[in-house]
Design brief:
globular, two-stranded parallel ribbon, about 475 residues, single chain, about 40% helix, TIM Barrel, alpha/beta, eight-stranded parallel barrel
């Protein structure tokens, strides 16, 4: 068979602590913002309301993240299943609130550190490289409610303490890290990545862009700490990437698409990968009435400590239309017009593997740094039979097409490090807080109320991905 992927390509899967671990108040863990965000289809509407202030109200809402899939207690079983699939790496996050429960403590919670000692040791015992995200949508609730989230510069020192603690604890064993998950998601939804509510600035460009600046400083501090701890560490940024198309050849739509690519796909990565604000930043700030508080030394730090690679999620493309009546792409978190050339998932996310090849070329052309696809996958309603067998050919087809696109991008000359499909085991959805929106190769017997046995069952895609990894991407049949 033709070798389509380089030797050492990092096949694996990805999760986030707040969506799988559960055990939200065990072993000294504090509350994170996600612990205070209700589940259900109206989740985004609830947290986008002017009244939302992170007050927990179990009489009105459910909080599925409190239990998750109990990965906190069952990680050994789950990682053994990942080993059986052949994973070369496992991307997961460290819950900030397990290490510093309120974010402001001077000493870390040793029970939380020991937990990740064991997770990392289990991965390494199975020959699986950990790929750790420092901050994956789970800021300590105290820093959101008392400090106002990332718009407050004081948060930088608290994040630096957290980053230093875990990088020094695990940096000799863990080579691959990322700083902030989907940092650019704040363009559309600053709740998760910046912990901004409407009351604290979610709709205010000034708050949002200042929060980004503070995160860029914090990210560079983490890169500096990582490289000082162990020069072999590779630490990346992480963005959502949505290849953007103009709805038609109207020059106004073409220009709007260029601006969308700059403000959404490139702004955050430009700073973290190139070490400076892009040429279009001043124009963007002016158009939004933004004046950044940039402190002496900030830009020198950002310039000196850029990321080693670009990690990104890719689920869909987006179509930009500013001039004509057109159907919207329903369910697409990123908005945009309906693309008549694409099919959509059960949740309305348009499926575009060619867009992944385009995106890989665009990113590599712009940054000339290794790329790492750390999220990609199909959220779908899986219907197991009486033996809990799931025939998820729709997921296999989705992944096959995207892996084909990856191989074609590598042929184009793109340097691609690895691929970790999202939700390699079923987990609580970020956008809806549901279990019924499933991504995994492994079915978890829990419903949207987190009722069920919690037992794990291998889907058809489990065996298919096992074959893909064993053949290093050569056998996609």
């Amino acid at each position: 068979m033709k070798e389509r992927f380089p030797q050492g390509f990092m096949w694996g899967g990805a999760t986030a602590a707040n969506q799988v671990e559960g055990a939200y108040n065990e072993d000294g863990k504090g509350l994170s913002i996600v612990d205070a965000i209700p589940g259900g289809k109206s989740r985004l509407a609830i947290v986008s309301s002017p009244d939302f202030d992170f007050t927990l109200d179990p009489s009105r809402y459910t909080y599925p993240n409190h239990k998750g899939i109990d990965h906190y207690h069952r990680f050994r079983e789950d990682i053994a299943l990942f080993k059986e699939m052949g994973f070369k790496c496992y991307r997961f996050s460290i819950a900030w609130t397990r290490i510093y429960p309120n974010g402001v403590e001077k000493q870390p919670n040793e029970a939380g550190l020991r937990h990740y000692d064991e997770v990392i040791a289990t991965c390494l015992a199975h020959g699986i490289e950990p790929v750790i995200t420092l901050s994956h949508y789970e800021m300590p609730l105290h820093l959101a409610t008392e400090f106002g989230g990332w718009k407050n510069r004081e948060v930088i020192e608290h994040f630096e303490r957290f980053a230093r603690t875990v990088l020094e604890r695990y940096g000799q064993k863990v080579k691959y890290w990322m700083t902030f998950n989907e940092i650019n998601s704040a363009v559309h939804f600053p709740m998760m990545s910046q912990s901004l509510t409407v009351k604290t600035g979610a709709l205010d460009p000034q708050a949002k862009f200042q929060a980004w600046h503070n995160q860029f400083v914090a990210s560079s501090m983490a890169v500096k700490i990582a490289h000082e701890t162990n020069p072999a560490i590779q630490i990346g940024c992480m963005i959502i990437y949505a290849t953007a198309y103009a709805f038609d050849c109207n020059p106004l739509n073409q220009l709007a698409t260029l601006k969308e690519m700059q403000s959404f796909n490139f702004y955050c990565a430009d700073v973290q990968a190139k070490g400076d604000y892009p040429y279009y930043a001043k124009s963007l700030w002016k158009s939004l009435g933004v004046t950044l508080d940039i402190q002496p030394g900030d830009m020198a730090l950002i310039k000196a400590h850029t990321v080693d690679y670009i990690g990104f999620s890719y689920y869909m493309s987006t179509t930009i239309n500013k001039t004509a009546e057109a159907e919207s792409a329903q369910g697409n978190l990123l908005g945009g017009a309906r693309n008549p050339f694409l099919e959509a998932s059960d949740w309305g996310w348009e499926i575009d593997p060619v867009g992944l090849r385009i995106g890989l070329n665009q990113l590599y052309d712009r940054y000339q740094k290794p790329l790492f696809i750390v999220e990609n996958g199909l959220g779908a309603i899986d219907k197991p039979d009486e033996n809990f067998r799931v025939e998820d050919d729709y997921r296999i087809n989705y992944l096959r097409q995207h892996i084909e696109a990856m191989a074609e991008a590598i042929d184009d000359g793109v340097e691609l490090m690895g691929y970790t499909p999202w939700g390699c085991i079923d987990l609580v959805s970020m956008s809806t807080g549901e279990m019924s929106k499933r991504y995994g190769f492994i079915y978890v017997d829990l419903d949207d109320t987190i009722s069920g046995t919690g037992n794990r069952y291998k889907k058809k895609s489990f065996y298919w991905y096992q074959k893909v990894i064993a053949s290093n991407g050569s056998d996609l049949s």
